[in-house]
Specification:
The chain is mainly alpha-helical and about 110 residues long. It is about 40% helix and about 5% strand. The protein has helices spanning about 1-5, 15-20, 55-65, 65-70, 80-95, and strands at about 30-35, 50-55. The protein starts with a helix and ends in an 11-residue tail after the last helix.
């Protein structure tokens, strides 16, 4: 609840828009907390560096499209380490700014 209150807009809307080559002017309201490394892959919901606040459509897309999500830094492999977390954060920042990216080292 605190994360959603602190960051009320989706952190993935601009990333998906950039990935799709679209422009959006306002992201949707965040309603879910997404784990970059899911609990099933060994991630922790208690580690805030592993969490993003997202809208439901983006959350659905992340979970249904794991390869695209990993490319965009929105989902991470189970063997994620601090270097991969930093790379994923940079990938999200570049996409949020509309900058092109190449495939990540872990794909």
């Amino acid at each position: 609840e605190r994360l959603l209150a602190d960051e009320p807009v989706c952190e993935a809307c601009y990333i998906w828009a950039s990935y799709d080559g679209k422009v959006i002017f306002r992201p949707r309201t965040a309603v879910d907390v997404h784990e970059l490394v899911s609990r099933g892959r060994g991630g922790s919901i208690l580690d805030e560096s592993n969490l993003l606040v997202v809208c439901r459509p983006c959350h659905t897309r992340i979970t249904q499209n794991p390869t695209e999500s990993e490319f965009c830094g929105l989902a991470l492999p189970s063997w994620t380490n601090p270097d991969i977390l930093r790379e994923a954060e940079l990938r999200r920042d570049h996409l949020s700014a509309g900058e092109p990216i190449s495939p990540p080292s872990w794909l």
